[in-house]
TrEMBL record:
Belongs to the transferase hexapeptide repeat family. LpxD subfamily. PANTHER family: UDP-3-O-ACYLGLUCOSAMINE N-ACYLTRANSFERASE, UDP-3-O-ACYLGLUCOSAMINE N-ACYLTRANSFERASE 1, MITOCHONDRIAL-RELATED. Keywords: Acyltransferase, Lipid A biosynthesis, Lipid biosynthesis, Lipid metabolism, Repeat, Transferase. It comes from Rubritalea spongiae. Pfam families: Hexapep, LpxD. The lineage of its organism: Bacteria, Pseudomonadati, Verrucomicrobiota, Verrucomicrobiia, Verrucomicrobiales. HAMAP family: LpxD (MF_00523). It catalyses: a UDP-3-O-[(3R)-3-hydroxyacyl]-alpha-D-glucosamine + a (3R)-hydroxyacyl-[ACP] = a UDP-2-N,3-O-bis[(3R)-3-hydroxyacyl]-alpha-D-glucosamine + holo-[ACP] + H(+). This is UDP-3-O-acylglucosamine N-acyltransferase. Homotrimer. One of its GO terms (molecular function) is UDP-3-O-[(3R)-3-hydroxyacyl]-glucosamine N-acyltransferase activity. Pathway: Bacterial outer membrane biogenesis; LPS lipid A biosynthesis. Residues 27-88 form the UDP-3-O-[3-hydroxymyristoyl] glucosamine N-acyltransferase non-repeat region domain.
Length: 345
């Protein structure tokens, strides 16, 4: 299983700028670990020294590179990181074989709607009554599909993921290991001296091309739907609360928490460890830097940082001013002393 130089250039839209191809390419590796059978890429100037010493067979490079040490074949592309991702996807598809059928240890209820010749259900999977599974979908070992859940075409449900009852997945959805869709929202009312559970009777909808990271949880709505929009990618260890609506093509990074009934527009980027309080709206194309705390609605097309969230440029000015405070205090004490000495003469 390998790619030829011609396949790589066609796939990436690149052109050969130096070197000669001696073989096909079967592997993928970082510049400092690659061998003659591997494809690598230069996507950050910090790795330029590794680039100069690499043993890779083929390196994807940006147009600004002018040095081409002897050894690899160099393919110029517009965006090396993205181009490398295309090669990864192609090689991974070649290495991963889709074998339709149902493993003998899997439990599939009699009324599940699916074509066993066009889906792959691995060992110890449980698919409960009324579920629907689209063609081309693979469900890996130990996953659980609840009653009347709907899974679209060409989805990939990794091991030990859970899709609870009535939840819906579009086409080409990826759920990484241990992710949970449709767990109960965190809802309680304090009555008669105790926290009384509020029933959560809604569902979760993941639209086409959504990816959910490992051990991420997305709560079912109290009523209605929790929705993750088309093309949105959610990292590992993220918590999405009940009735949250996330727009299309958003990025939500690890250890972020979004409280119930908040909404994100389209193309919103949420960096690591961000906390978003409940019942808020973040508009299109906003970017929240790491560890930002959101406590009010935010306008779009801006970068925010800090706790509470502020435009990043304002936050940076505040930090710079704070760094100058010790010197300002020292100057103030010196001036105060001089004034006191002048007044005492």
């Amino acid at each position: 299983m390998e790619l030829s130089l011609e396949e790589v250039t066609k796939l990436t839209g690149g052109r050969v700028v130096a070197g000669e191809s001696k073989n096909g390419y079967r592997g993928l590796a970082a510049l400092n670990e690659a061998t003659a059978n591997d494809v690598s890429f230069l996507g950050n100037e910090k790795y330029y020294d590794d680039y100069l010493r690499t043993n890779a067979g083929l390196v994807l490079v940006p147009s600004k590179v002018k040095e081409f040490p002897e050894g690899p074949v160099y393919v110029e592309v517009e965006n090396p990181s993205y181009a490398f991702g295309l090669v990864v996807k192609k090689l991974s598809a070649k290495m991963r074989s889709f074998k339709p059928g149902v493993h003998p240890t899997a439990y599939v209820a009699e009324d599940v709607r699916y074509n066993p010749e066009k889906v792959s259900i691995k060992a110890n999977v449980v698919v409960e009554s009324g579920a629907v599974i689209g063609d081309g979908t693979e469900i890996q070992a130990g996953a659980v599909i609840g009653e009347y859940a709907k899974i679209g075409k060409d989805c990939l449900i990794y091991s030990n993921a859970t899709i609870r009852e009535y939840c819906e997945l579009g086409d080409r959805v990826i759920m990484q290991p241990g992710s949970v869709i449709g767990s109960d929202g965190y809802g309680y009312e304090f009555v008669d001296g105790a926290h009384q559970k509020v029933d959560q009777v809604g569902i979760v909808v993941l639209e086409n091309d959504v990816e959910v990271g490992a051990n991420t949880t997305i709560d079912r709505a109290r009523f209605g739907k929790t929705v993750i929009g088309e093309g949105t990618k959610i990292d590992n260890l993220v918590q999405i609360g009940h009735n949250v609506v996330i727009g299309k093509h958003c990025l939500v990074i690890a250890l972020t928490g979004v409280a119930g009934s908040s909404s994100l527009g389209n193309y919103v980027t949420v960096a690591a460890q961000v906390g978003i309080a409940g019942h808020l709206h973040i508009a299109d194309k906003a970017t929240l830097m790491a560890r930002t705390g959101v406590m009010k609605d935010l306008e779009g097309d801006q970068i925010y940082w800090g706790n509470p969230a502020r435009p990043a440029k304002d936050q940076l000015r505040s930090i710079a001013a704070l760094a100058r405070l010790p010197k300002l205090m020292s100057d103030f004490r010196s001036l105060k002393k001089k004034v006191e000495e002048t007044e005492s003469e």
